[in-house]
Every structure is written in C-alpha cells, then in structure tokens.
Amino acid sequence: MKDVLEYVARAIVDEPDAVEVTEVEGERSVILQLRVAPDDMGKVIGKRGRTVRAIRSVLRAAGSREGVTPLVEIVEDEHD
C-alpha cells in the first residue's frame, strides 16, 4: 500500500522527488504518513478535500484485499 500511495502522490504533485511516505504498522491497521513539498499540499488535499478522499478510497480498497485498514495522514513539516 505504501507503493500505491507514493505512486499516486508523485503523479499529482509538481515536485515528485519531495514525496515521502512513512509506514507505521498496527495490529489491524497501517498508518501511512504522506509528506510533500509545501507548495504541493493543496494539490494533494484538493478542493474541499476531494483528492485526499479519493486517495483514501483507493487505499481502502487495496487494504481490504490484504485484510488491513489503511489510515492516510498528510504530515506537514514544521520549520522554525
């Protein structure tokens, strides 16, 4: 599922080299943390969150085949 999220995110953003996906495994779920360039944050989220909802739907379908529930988090890097 990590590969699926990375592939989709790289196709959407302007800076595909900045895409980073971190996977945190739980018992029945997998948390996928997505980091993108600050300028690409809006593209990944989409208007009213439509894009990120679509990404989550695709990953839920992929996760159901593997018997896990994926949770997608968009993580914003905090710079001081």
Describe the structure.
- The chain is of the alpha+beta class and 80 residues long.
- It has a single domain, classed as 2-Layer Sandwich (GMP Synthetase, Chain A, domain 3), CATH 3.30.300.20.
- 41% of the residues lie in helices and 24% in strands.
- It contains three helices and three strands, in the order αββααβ.
- A hairpin with a 3-residue loop joins strand 1 (20-25) and strand 2.
- The longest helix has 17 residues, at 50-66.
- The termini are far apart.
- The mean pLDDT is 90.
Summarize the structure.
The chain is of the alpha+beta class. Helix content is about 40%, strand content about 25%.
Topology:
Layout: H1 2-12, E1 20-25, E2 29-35, H2 41-45, H3 50-66, E3 69-74
Parallel strand pairs: 2-3
Antiparallel strand pairs: 1-2
